[in-house]
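Hi there, hope your week has been kind to you so far. Please have a think about how the structure follows from the sequence. I've dropped the whole record in just underneath, so have a look:

_____
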Amino acid sequence: MVYDEIQEFGRRIGLSNLDLSGGPVTLDIEEIGRLTMTLKNEPGEEAELTLMLVRNFTQEPEKVFRRLLAEADWRSNPPYTIQTGELGERVFVLTRLPESRLRGAEIENALRYLSAQLSN
C-alpha cells in the first residue's frame, strides 16, 4: 500500500513511474525546488516518508529562519511538523509522514506546505 500511495503521488505530479523501492529519489521541480523523498520501510516498523525541499535563499538567512520559527509555533497549529536548516547558500525544510498519513493527496499537500514555507 505504501508504494501504491507513492506512485499515486507521482501520477498527481506527472511522474507515472515514481518508485522509492531502490532508495531515495531527488526531483528538481520547476518553481518549487529540489525535493528529496526517502522512505523508511523496515519490517515490523511503521513506514515513514521524509520529504525534504531545498531552495536557494531569496532573502537574508536570518529573516528566513525567524519566519520559519514563528510559523512552527505550536499556537499556530501547523498541519505538519517541520525541521529546517541551512546547506551553504540554500535553505531546506523537511517533514516526515508516518504510514498512517501516507496517501497520494497527503504527500502532495505536504509538498505544497513545504513550498509555501519557503515562498513567504
